[in-house]
Queue: 4 jobs
Job 1
Amino acid sequence: MTATALPALVFSRLHALRAGPARTALTVFAIRVGSAGFAYGTQVLAARLMGWDAYGVFASVWVWTAMLGHTLTLGLSQGACRFVPGDQARGDLDLARGYIRAGALVTSGAALAVAGLGAALLVLEPGLFAPDYRAPIAVAACVMPLFALQDFLEGVARSQNWLGLAIAPPYLLRQTLLMACMVGAVLAGAPPRAEVAMGCMLVAAAIATALQAGLLAARLRVDLPPGPHRYHWRTWLGTSLPIAGIDLSNAGFTFVDVIVLGALVSPAELGLYFAATRIQQFVVFVHFAASAATLQRYSAAQAAADRPLLADLVRRQGRLTAAATMLVGCAILAASPLLLAMFGPGLGSSVPILCVLVAGSVAASLFGPGEDLLTMLGGERLCAGITAGMLLAAAALCLALVPSLGTLGAALAVAVATVLRALLLARAAGQLHGLTTPIWSAGATR
């Protein structure tokens, strides 16, 4: 790339950065809410068809599949938002192409290796798993690589600000196909068992991943023309592996209560609790949408050394995310009796659980995008350490509170740990990057 072309490319990238991150976040949130509607309908359908015992088995297997599938990108999905926009802003397209190819190969290889290990354990040591779990786990081993690959594809699409292509296939199309497959399975007379539900997930994930991969490859051929590939394995993996630790810990935060409860309570009680967490996910989507619209903007602004833009992005993301989280949380709580009743009678006891979980999400949002700054600008190892420490704290609190408070104790444990984690991440981001993230001072530089 010539010396005269590079400034023009950087200017165009920065102009794109300023073009409506709030509007982009709203688009992402709308897609996630739409997908959550289908996901919620699918969970209601599954609970009513299978009963709480079988639904509890399905919930437990699904949690492990989602958690491992997301983590097996080895951090390369988030890394795409950090490295690819920076490489493009500097005009180093060879390195950008190399990252995308390497990330796809490493993600696929890691996911297939773990899925193969799980299948081998099922064959060689079947006694490790309860009989009701064996068939669902066998299907989950096939689903996991698809989850991992689609997560990487999402990261690449987000790095190019193609938010519709990033979000719609995994969160809207996949959920729509899952619901259609479950309805089709019921009409075909399939038994209401957890392995049938996981089989429907396999079909939905395969179709959605294939479609997303094809569309993404076509767009990349236009916007990132074919050419040589260069690889910085040490830099990429040195950054992405700690991000994988963050992803695993984040997934653990999302599911630690379900995992602990799976060991301490009956599948029916677990199913009732899981129903409440599915509703609470509407609140979590606010932060997801804001991050999806802003992460790559942090990276490109940092590459262009535009400090005022960074401060502005932090301020906007922090305040808008906190306000939207509070608004959505209040709406969810107001509608919670109706939403829970759709799963069936006897879920009134889940309302306090939902209140505690929502309160934790709202309180954590007040501390701003500390995690996003540490992940995109440097500090991923510190972020991973804080997140892992708070995950252990959440698990310990669950073990301490569940015996006396039941499922409400699990919700309290997760809420407390979530708020403490947000506080520590905000302090770390401020100390490392000189950008304060809490909403009462978001974006200020030191």
Job 2
Amino acid sequence: MTKTLKAAVIALALAGTSVIGVTTTAHAVDAVVTFDPGTVQYGYTDGYWTKTHEFRSWEKPEHVDVYRKVPDAQYHDWAHTRDSDQGWIEKK
């Protein structure tokens, strides 16, 4: 891994971003998969709404923990399907 890539990984980790290293066996290439909690509008036990109004499932359990530690995170301890609006809260 180059020094620049290592520095980027460390910077993301310190910024509260969950970084997971992945190696593909076909080409033996190192790749970095990141979760950016800044894209989350509302979090639920079964996934989250992005700020662009897309619902996504949590890819890793640690992503929930990363998001919940973000200041002012809006995490709800129930499935998004509980509410008639599917958990998307329209601001008035």
Job 3
Amino acid sequence: MSDPLDALQAKVRALREEFERALGEARDPQGFQAVKDRFLGRKSGAVTGLLRSLAGLAEDARRDAGRELNALKQDIEARLDGAREALTARSRDERLAHERVDVTLPGRPPVLGRRHPLTVVREELEEIFLSMGYEVYDGAETDDDYHCFEALNMPPDHPARDMQDTFYVAGHSGALLRTHTSTGQIRYMLSNPHPPVVRIICPGKVFRRDDDITHSPMFQQVEALVVGPGITLGDLKGSIEAFLHALFGPQYPVRFRSSFFPYTEPSVEVDLGCIVCGGKGCRVCKGTGWLEIMGSGMVHPAVFEAVNARLGRMVYDPEEVTGFAFGLGIERVAMMKHGIDDIRLFYGSDLRFLEQFPA
């Protein structure tokens, strides 16, 4: 009959050989855990089972066998820990070799956003007018027929409305997207905190049914309104010249031509010496040497009368006060300043176009 201790030692040797093979086949943390569960698991581990079988041995044999099994258990744990550490170090070395960073290279600056070129131009316009003593007044983009047309001397049958056929809001009688920022001028005069004196600009988005390389269904305007006793056409011309010279430079001449607008009388168009050719004549100015820049004129007495009628009292007496107004498109200014020939580029969200402008 064989010695139980010899038989146990034979099983220990077999387990060592089996563990060496299993450890050599493990390639990842999950494999190492499977080996540990196979040999040292609390319920079904091979070494754990042998430790339970020691109860059937004599005391001396049990002591020697327990010492050998504990040594096997500690060896297995140490070998597994060492294999895990070696795998971690190897993975770290491979990752460092693959993701090597040259710390001597200069850093990459973060990509920063920038203001839209139209925003930059609008702020420049506002700063010029603020320096001239004007107040910036923001009006609502959705308005009604009275403020957009009727108060500006354009009754329902006026032919000038055909040029500003616009977007009406369904379900709201008379509500529409404003076709010009002149609606803000009317609203300011109605709520003027210091009547009858007015000196404001009204910048903002406007909407018209246009869409080509020089027109957009949505664009931006800035309009100015000055009202008070003794305001003359000379004040209008001087203010416009001062504004345009501050915007483009004093080297460009300013020219005034007779025109027609329903809400001004007399009305004048304003031309600026071509900033491309310097007045010599080119494709941009169509050989004339001039670029049309804005419309302007003296406020029509009918506008004052419409505001007085809405207020129910004589606040802006056409016999006592006069005024002038002028307006221009912000996109047109940006196109002239940067030599852009298609207004749609401003609204195309193309970074190749927008990133050409300085931050």
Job 4
Amino acid sequence: MDAQPVGEPSVSKPWSVSAKVRGFYDDNYNTAPSNPTPGYPYQKAESWGFSVAPSIGANLLRDQTTLGVRYDFDLRWYEARKNDNLDMYHSASLKLAHQFSERYRIELHDNFVYSDEPSVAFGSAAAPAVFVRTEGNNLRNYGGIGFNGSFTEHWGYRLGYENTYYNYSQDGDGSRSALLDRIENKVTVDFRRLIQPTTTALVGYSFEDVDHTADSYLIVPAYAPGVPLSNIPMSDFRNSRNHFGFLGLDHDFTTQLNAQLRAGVEYGDFYNAGENYTVPYADATLGYKYAEGSQIQLGIKHGLSATDIAVDYNLSGVTLAAESTTLYAGLSHRITSKLTATVRGQWSMMDYRSTGVGYGGQTDNYYSADVSLIYTLNQYLAFDAGYLFDRLDSDVPNRTFDRNRAYLGIRATY
């Protein structure tokens, strides 16, 4: 097994603590558009700053039961932001697994995030729903439970339930809450066939209910003078019931190279809007550990996702969702016994689906990349440095932006 990175809580010890202290530079902390229209409230601004990010983790390992808990906190101070120069990020996670016997296993997980910057961890299964910064705190909780069982030596099944809750503090008509506050409930069942010790094939079905909870108008009524309130859509106009049918394959080519594939069809029924969409569904990953401390991961996701784009000011249509494609890749390479380099990249394309005209057929292309170097002094201390790039190219006005960030810091783990 590869060594635990310095600066991260260890999963091989009963408990551990860690911390990262960094100085950074951010050239667009507002994620403001590159060419805003006159009067747009957010302008591009840059700032130096520092961050302090402690973490604590605990693990319980027994013959049949494993339990892991972790808490992460990240405090960021921006020198140039005079009125609100602090961002805070909280994340608490729990993982529990119990093996009843060789044939039955149950797994439970939960992750709670409370953050000033929703783009950090508020994406959907297929793509991020939010790219731009929103003033105020934002909450997301993602939890689930899965039960794995076997009928025979070669035939098995899995039953799963997932719940995701989103709550944005910016409320009122046309706000983040109006656009994105929601509860997602998803149930999945699949049947599996062990073809050989390294290959499992499966067929499955998922049902997902998406309930937008803000009870607000998707646009500020004053922005649509002369339009009766009854003609302005509410948040729940974008509710949906989604059905997924898929085939899957899990295969270990070697002990270092493995792949997982889920591919099929997604049907989204937006029943309040009287619209439905059928799109391809895909979720595939390929992982390769080619040396000690070095690995590559590739992946692709495709499906319908929530979006903060909703109503144009002409009220010519309502954007219900985006058909999203996300490609991502990551490389971690141990250059020497003390120096490790990491490179990651992602591209997401969102093709908007709307009633009427609206933003239907318009697209967003989001690109992100980051590179980092970690130099390990000893088992407790390491230096790290990195650079992050984000760019959004959008057909929607006041949305295209780019952002550059760099940091230098030290990590400690005990």
